[in-house]
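Handout for the seminar on molecular recognition.
Each group receives one record of this type.
Step one: identify the two inputs.
Step two: read the structure output and locate the region that could contact flavin-adenine dinucleotide.
Step three: write two sentences on what you found, then compare them with the reference statements printed after the record.
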Amino acid sequence: MKIQLKAFRKKEDLKKHLKSHAETLFYASGTSTVIPYPNLGKALKGKGFEHLYMGDLNALPQKMDFAREGALEIEGPVTWKDARGFCLSHGRNIMVSPTEELACMLAGIATSASGERSFGFGSLREHVTEIEYLNFEGKEQTLYSKNLLINHPLFQSEEGKKILEAYQDSYKKYDGFKNAPFPRLEKETDLMVGMEGQLGVVTRAHFETIKDETTRFLFIKLPKWEEDVKPHLEIFYNAQNFRDHLISVELLDHNCLSYLPDEEKPLPAGYDVIFLEVKLSSFDLIIENLIPTLTLTPDDNIFEMNGDKCHHLRMLIPRFISEVNQRRGVKKKGTDVQVPKESFETLISYYRDFSTKGISYNLFGHFGDGHLHFNFLPLAEEEEKCQNLLTEFYKKIKSIHGSPFAEHGIGLLKQDFIAPFLTKVQLEMYRYLKENLDPKNQFFPQGFLNLSRGKKND
Ligand SMILES: Cc1cc2nc3c(=O)[nH]c(=O)nc-3n(C[C@H](O)[C@H](O)[C@H](O)COP(=O)(O)OP(=O)(O)OC[C@H]3O[C@@H](n4cnc5c(N)ncnc54)[C@H](O)[C@@H]3O)c2cc1C
């Protein structure tokens, strides 16, 4: 298979390329954990394609502005880091905060990004009010979140209405998830959200922002989760009542913290930490009403941490982990599961079982949302064992009605695992979307929307 790079410097060049209908995987910062960019040829082998363009969007012109009070308008490959800086300089802030802040915001629409602040503010999908994209003919199309998809021209036919109604019905059991096993498809803007660039190229969007407010961070020192998870779970359950006051509830386990150089470690070795990001205006309320309910955690184990230091730690940990992995030749096998509140303890019991398999691992993530990243760090000879463990794991996740990939998407690496979560209702919708919005099958044709081709699950 031949993979050919093509960079776009002007929107007009991009339009011209789209009119040629050449099969293309567009990319922005290339931080996706589910597309193996350096080994793309290997990952695409046997998928029946001879040629693919890698469409580099990084050289397109960038723009940031406030379209109206609080609505941040982004054009081109603007990163989260730059957008946050821009907002802060205007006394505002963005509500989503992916750990990888060099990722692009418009790509975040394509992956339905979320992050630690989703506990308080929800995922990116909820903040996008307007999206412009280029369709298969290179034409600009605009979508508005205020318009329901059921009124969109695409769904006015008898067939379209029927497919959408069945799809929305099937989504009901996942209401409340950040990202279910399949995209939301409720509002017009959802046609681009979580679609991983398979229906068009997002070129401009509006994001609701909030007035910037100082926040404070509480660190809670905890035993290793494998040995005693009760204090962690007490925080999980009790924090749910304070969603209006807490912005994030995040876990970093003792394994993650062990990667840090000694001078950066916030705790002695052998402890987990859960940190709470608290709105300044709610700090006293949290101290008086949430903290006293944490009966399994001694008061001395709860302390305030400087916000900049906390942010710095969050950035450092993935970097150190990936550096050590590269050195050891480890290919991380990550998980991205979110489960309903009532299944969270069960999810942790699966991870505890993983921890006994003799393979290196770590656990961190969006604890308050019941959404964690358990990462196996296998040596080459342990990779197959890991893959088998994960196959069994996803069967269990399906049986407890969890969402297997709540944040990082499907890409190329998770397609085998997602397939059992899809029924003919979703596959029908995928087929319908591809036929109508990508009739030449030019947008990332190896992506999950084409799982509908040749697969007929019940
Ligand atoms: C250390 C680390 C931490 C991470 N933490 C988080 C996190 O907290 N939350 C989270 O959500 N993700 C996280 N991610 C995953 C990743 O950063 C996100 O998926 C991010 O949105 C990808 O952005 P990107 O610019 O790198 O996109 P790319 O990797 O370049 O592309 C990702 C996908 O989006 C499509 N795409 C890109 N741009 C466009 C466009 N303009 N129009 C249409 N399709 C497009 C591509 O075709 C591809 O399918 C993390 C990744 C790493 C490595």
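Reference statements: The chain is about 30% helix and 20% strand. The longest strand covers residues 201-208.
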